[in-house]
Amino acid sequence: PLSLHDALPISAAFSKVVALYHRSNCNEVTELDPTTGAIGSQRNGDTQLGTQLVSDGTYVTTTGPTLLDTWRSDMVMTVEYGTVPDFYNPNVQPRKNCDYGSVAAFAGQIGVIERCPDENSDRLTVYKATATENDKPNVVFSVELGAHGSRVVAMNQQFVAVAMSDPSRLEIFNATNGNDLTHYAVDLTPADLSGDPAGRVVPVAAGASALYWYTGSSTVALAPTNLQPMWTVPGTLGAGVVFAGRYLAPVPNGIEVLDQAAGTKVGVIGVDRHGYTGTVSMAVLGPVVFEQRG
Fold first, then answer.
1. What is the pTM of this model?
2. Is 50 exceeded by the pLDDT of residue 97?
3. For residues 58 and 73, is the Cβ–Cβ distance under 8 A?
4. Which among 121, 240, 274, 290 could bridge 249 via Cys, Cβ 3.0 to 4.6 Å?
């Protein structure tokens, strides 16, 4: 058996298990073989407490409150974005003393909602997963949103989707230049955009026919091409998972089985959660579906 004390999150990336952990005055990111637990590449870093890991398949990024670190498959850090504790090259960060609300990643690019002290609204920034030669973040675009409480929900090569309130909507931006292209009305409760998501990552499950966005009160299926909302399952408890060609959505007292593309209900699997009513996370390993509560 293998144990990492004081472990932070783990993530599957590069066919490895990637684990973050803190010890007194340092922290490390470690690759583990998923079968044997053997330790692979290991590096020190500046990872902050309360972070999660976001992976695009090629890079993993930590979602700290003021610092984002990105690593490639050999655990070499490729870029730091935000408040860096020890500057090797000063004055390379585009803004100082900003807080981060939510983070997403896709195909070597990272999207983040920033809140900076000298600005009156949230800011959406997309930057590349590799820095320039002087460690300067390679920013693709950065735009003020004119709103507060925004969340970056999903990204692809062409678009970035951001949830916004007053009115509640999903705003779609061009992933290359940050132009505001269009928006779609979505039914969000006040609690859905209250504060920031846990670990600064919006729960989204990926499928072949859609991306399944858990808003906090429902699950919205987004078209994988243009990120347009297609259908909604109200009253869900999490983002769910795709399994055996179906979409599984956790709901009170069970798991709804739905058609991936159309959202039509195929059936319900009864689950006794013994009074638990909080968020449910789901995953799949081979022929087994896992459900995590709390």
1. 0.92
2. yes
3. yes
4. 240
